[in-house]
Design a protein that fits this description.
The complex is a heterodimer of chains A (about 325) and B (about 325). Chain A has about 325 residues and is an alpha/beta fold. Chain A is built from eleven helices and twelve strands. Chain B folds into two domains: about 220 residues, P-loop containing nucleotide triphosphate hydrolases (Rossmann fold), CATH 3.40.50; about 80 residues, no CATH class. Helices cover about 35% and strands about 25% of the residues of chain B. The chains are: A alpha/beta (about 325), B alpha/beta (about 325).
Chain lengths: ~325, ~325
C-alpha cells in the first residue's frame, strides 16, 4: 500500500470562549475533538455531518488556516502540524481548497485572469507559455470559455463561478483538494455538472479529495470512503457502499434515514428514524458518548463513558457501545 | 374535497431598466382543502414570486401583476389581486399564512417569541395581551416546544434553528388558516431536523385541514409529502401531475433531466451524473420560444425547428397531467426510457 497523501492523528481544535475582552477564558468550544483520518492518493474521502459537527473546521485545520490545538497532521509523509506562515507556502501549492460560496470566495474587483493567475504570482511560478496561456488552459479544462479571461465574477452564474474557484485550485497542480461544500450553493441541475467536473479532474489528474459536505446523496456519489462526524468526533468510518448499505452507528443510521429519497413509492413505504431534539452545543457537550442525548439505544453506560472508535469489520470503524 | 384556491392566468412582471423581468408567466392552478401542492423549480424559476403574489405581498408600485387569485374562505370568496390592501390584510394571517426559509430573519429579535405569536393572534381577535400569550403558549405546546410556558418569554436567539421554525409554524397557524404557503421551510435546517419539521407540518395540516403549498427545490421532500406537483422553469409551469405520475411517468424533458441528475442515498452508483447541460435563461426579454429548448436534448426530434420559434402551451398529456412540450406522446415515452 502506498503512503497516504493526508494523515490526521487525534486532531483537536478548541476555540477559547471568553466572557469579555479582558476577562479570563470561560472554557472552549471543542469544534474538533480527536479526529483521525487518512486520505490515500487518488481517493475521495467524504466528511459528513450536521452543521456544527466540526467538519469544516477539520478541513480548515488541514489547510493550516487554523492552528491545531493538539494532534498531528501529515501531508505526503511530512509532518505539517506546526508548520506556519512562509514555511507552509510550498505545502500549500500541493493542497488547495474549494469553498462553498462562489460569491464570497472570489474577489469582485479582480478579473478571472487575476483570480486564477494570482496562484502563479504568489508562488513565483512561471508556467510554460506565460501566465495568460496557463489561465486559458485552466478555464478550458473546467469547461469555461477561455475568451472570458478578462471578465469579472459578477458576469458569471453561480455554477460558472464555482468552476472559476476550481480552476484557481487546480492552477498549481495540487495533489490534494479540500472541497468544503463545493456544490451546496448550486441548483440541482448545476450541481450535477460540477460534481461530474470534479470526477473527471480526479481521473485525469490523479487528485485526492477531502470532500466536506452535509448532502449525503452527493457524498455517496463522489466518495470512496465516508467519515461521519458528530459534535467534533468521528462516529463512523467505512467504504462508501458499506456505510450506506449497512450503517452500524445509530447516528449514521438516523442521518441516512432522514434524507428524503426522490421516489414517492420508496419514500412513503420505508421506515424512518426521526431523531428527537437538536444538536447539543459543542461548548457544552454531553458527558459520555456525545450522541447519547439523542440516541434511542442509549443506556447508563453511554451517558458515562465515551466509546472508543473500533474497527468492527475490515475497514469499518464505529464509535459506539452498541453498534447495530 | 372543497376547493380552496384558484390561480388563473397569473403574471408577475418587474419592470427594470434593462427590460421587463417576467418572473411568473400565465400561471394556472387550483388547490383543495387538505391537499399538498408542491411547487418545484430552481432559483429564479418564479416559485417564490408567485406565492408572494398569492399572499398579496408584492410592492405594487414596482410590480405589475395581472390575473386572478381567488381564495375560497369559510364564509366568502375573495379575489386577491384586485382587492384593497385593507381586505388582503384581514385575510393574511387569518385565512392564509406563510412560513419562510430563514426563521432567524423572519422573527423579530427584540420581542419574545410568545409576544410575536400573541401579536399575530391579537391582529385578528379581540383579547388582551395576556389572552394572546395564553394562546401563544397553547400553540407552542402544539408544535412540541418543551416547557412552553417558559419558552414563550424567550427571544429568537435563545432558540435553535429547528425550534425557531417550529415557532414560525406556531405563529402562522395561530388563527387557524385554511391556506398555508411554506416557502423552502426546511432548506436552512439539517436533515435530522428537517425530518422533524416536515412531520410536524404534516400533523398540523391534518389537524387544521389546511391546503398547503410547499415550495421547494428538493425532489426528495416532494416525493415524501406532496399530493400534486407543479414544476416551474423560467417563470412558467412546465409540468403538473400527481406525485407518482411525475416521478414515474414524467412528460417534460426538464423534469426527466432533473430526476436523472439527482443522486439518491438508497442507491449506490458511481457512474457519471446525467447532468442537464447549460444554465437557465435570463428572464429579461425572453425569446418567443420554449425556454428550455437551448438545454433540451430532444429538441431536434420536433419537426420544423418549432421549439425555437414557438412557445408550447400547457397541454393535457394524461389524467390530471399536463406538460408544456411539443414532443408527441410517443417521443416522450421514448425519451423517458
Amino acid at each position: 500500500m502506498s503512503q497516504p497523501i493526508l494523515e490526521i492523528i487525534d486532531l483537536k481544535k478548541h476555540f477559547a470562549t471568553t466572557s469579555g475582552p479582558i476577562s479570563k477564558s470561560r472554557g472552549a468550544v471543542k469544534a474538533v475533538d480527536g479526529v483521525s483520518l487518512t486520505v490515500m492518493p487518488g481517493e475521495t474521502v467524504g466528511l459528513v455531518g450536521e452543521s456544527g459537527c466540526g467538519k469544516t473546521t477539520v478541513g480548515r485545520t488541514v489547510m493550516k488556516l487554523y492552528q491545531p490545538t493538539s494532534g498531528q497532521i501529515f501531508f505526503d509523509g511530512e509532518e505539517i502540524t506546526h508548520t506556519k506562515g512562509r514555511a507552509m507556502k510550498p505545502v500549500r501549492s500541493k493542497m488547495q481548497m474549494i469553498f462553498q460560496d462562489p460569491y464570497s470566495s472570489l474577489n469582485p474587483r479582480h478579473t478571472v485572469s487575476q483570480i486564477v493567475g494570482s496562484s502563479f504570482e504568489i508562488h513565483g511560478i512561471n508556467p510554460e507559455g506565460g501566465i495568460k496561456a496557463a489561465v486559458q488552459e485552466l478555464l478550458e479544462r473546467v469547461g469555461l470559455n477561455p475568451e472570458h479571461i478578462n471578465r469579472f465574477p459578477h458576469e458569471f452564474s453561480g455554477g460558472q463561478r464555482q468552476r472559476i474557484g476550481i480552476a484557481r485550485a487546480l492552477a498549481l497542480k495540487p495533489r490534494l483538494i479540500v472541497a468544503d461544500e463545493p456544490v451546496s450553493a448550486l441548483d440541482v441541475s448545476i450541481q450535477a455538472q460540477v460534481v461530474n467536473l470534479l470526477d473527471d479532474l480526479q481521473r485525469e489528474l490523479g487528485l485526492s479529495y477531502l470532500f466536506v459536505a452535509h448532502d449525503l446523496s452527493v457524498v455517496q456519489h463522489i466518495s470512496n470512503r465516508v467519515v461521519a462526524m458528530y459534535l467534533g468526533k468521528v462516529m463512523e468510518e467505512a467504504p462508501t457502499a458499506e456505510l450506506f448499505a449497512r450503517p452500524r452507528h445509530p447516528y449514521t443510521k438516523a442521518l441516512l434515514s432522514a434524507v428524503p429519497v426522490p421516489d414517492p413509492r420508496v419514500e412513503r413505504s420505508r421506515e424512518r428514524i426521526t431523531l428527537q431534539g437538536d444538536l447539543p452545543s459543542p461548548a457544552n457537550p454531553p458527558s459520555g458518548c456525545v450522541f447519547s442525548t439523542r440516541c434511542w439505544k442509549a443506556t447508563d453506560l453511554c451517558h458515562q463513558a465515551a466509546p472508543e472508535i473500533l474497527e468492527i469489520s475490515p475497514r469499518h470503524k464505529v464509535a459506539c457501545h452498541f453498534p447495530e | 374535497m372543497k376547493k380552496l384556491l384558484e390561480v388563473k392566468e397569473l403574471n408577475v412582471t418587474f419592470p427594470t431598466i434593462d427590460g421587463e423581468v417576467r418572473a411568473t408567466v400565465d400561471m394556472n392552478f387550483e388547490l383543495n382543502r387538505g391537499e399538498t401542492l408542491a411547487i418545484v423549480g430552481e432559483s429564479g424559476s418564479g416559485k417564490s414570486v408567485s406565492s408572494l403574489a398569492i399572499m398579496g405581498l408584492h410592492n405594487m408600485a414596482r410590480t405589475k401583476i395581472t390575473g386572478e387569485v381567488i381564495l375560497h374562505g369559510e364564509q366568502k370568496s375573495t379575489e386577491i389581486i384586485s382587492a384593497s390592501s385593507e381586505t388582503v390584510r384581514k385575510l393574511r394571517g387569518k385565512e392564509m399564512a406563510m412560513i419562510f426559509q430563514d426563521p432567524m430573519s423572519s422573527l423579530h429579535p427584540y420581542y419574545s417569541i410568545g409576544a410575536q405569536i400573541a401579536e399575530a393572534w391579537r391582529l385578528h381577535n379581540d383579547g388582551s395581551f395576556n389572552d394572546g400569550m395564553a394562546r401563544a403558549i397553547e400553540m407552542l405546546d402544539l408544535v412540541e416546544i418543551p416547557s412552553s410556558t417558559k419558552r414563550a418569554y424567550e427571544f429568537p436567539h435563545q432558540f435553535s434553528g429547528g425550534m425557531r421554525q417550529r415557532a414560525m409554524i406556531a405563529m402562522a397557524l395561530v388563527n387557524n388558516p385554511s391556506l398555508l404557503i411554506a416557502d423552502e421551510p426546511t432548506t436552512a435546517l439539517d436533515v435530522t431536523v428537517q425530518a422533524q419539521i416536515l412531520k410536524l407540518l404534516q400533523t398540523m395540516q391534518k389537524e387544521f385541514n389546511m391546503g398547503v403549498i410547499l415550495i421547494t427545490h428538493d425532489l426528495g421532500v416532494v416525493a415524501e409529502y406532496a399530493d400534486r406537483v407543479n414544476v416551474m422553469y423560467a417563470g412558467k409551469i412546465v409540468e403538473t401531475a400527481e406525485v407518482e405520475d411525475l416521478y414515474y411517468r414524467s412528460m417534460h424533458p426538464y423534469t426527466m433531466g432533473l430526476l436523472r441528475s439527482i443522486p439518491r442515498v438508497d442507491k449506490i452508483d458511481n457512474g457519471r451524473f446525467k447532468a442537464i447541460s447549460g444554465t437557465p435563461p435570463s428572464l429579461i426579454n425572453l425569446p418567443n420560444a420554449c425556454s428550455f429548448a437551448p438545454r433540451c436534448e430532444y429538441r431536434s426530434q420536433v419537426e420544423g425547428n418549432l421549439c425555437s420559434t414557438g412557445q408550447p402551451a400547457l397541454e393535457i398529456k394524461g389524467e390530471k397531467h399536463t406538460a408544456r412540450c411539443f414532443l408527441s406522446l410517443n417521443q416522450i415515452e421514448r425519451a423517458r426510457a
